[in-house]
Amino acid sequence: MLSCLHKPRHQETPLATRGEPHENHLRRCRTISFDSTAWFGLMAPAGTPAPIVAKLHAETAKILARADVREKFANLGMEVIGNTPAEFADVIKAETPVWAKIIKASGAKATE
Known about the structure:
A 3-stranded antiparallel beta sheet has the order 2-1-3. It is extended. It has one domain. The protein is mostly helical. Helix content is 51%, strand content 9%. The longest helix is centred in the C-terminal third of the chain and has 22 residues, at 85-106.
């Protein structure tokens, strides 16, 4: 787990540009209530040696610190977080039970 980007809430999405805000699709359900933030992260396979994860993180962090890269993400409505592998793991650990509850409440089922 190397870095994280997140899109602030209430930004315009492709659905919003067609006249239908993304959140309206979710609100139609009205059976569950939740707050959602989209995020993106870079991950390595389980068991990747720590020195390799550290090197990948360091190089990724250098790129994400560049003003031109941050500006490109900002123009997409995204904020660069660039957190540590441990911090990103904490994000995933915190969100997993939240989304598990939402999925269960929705009645969604996995299919092939």
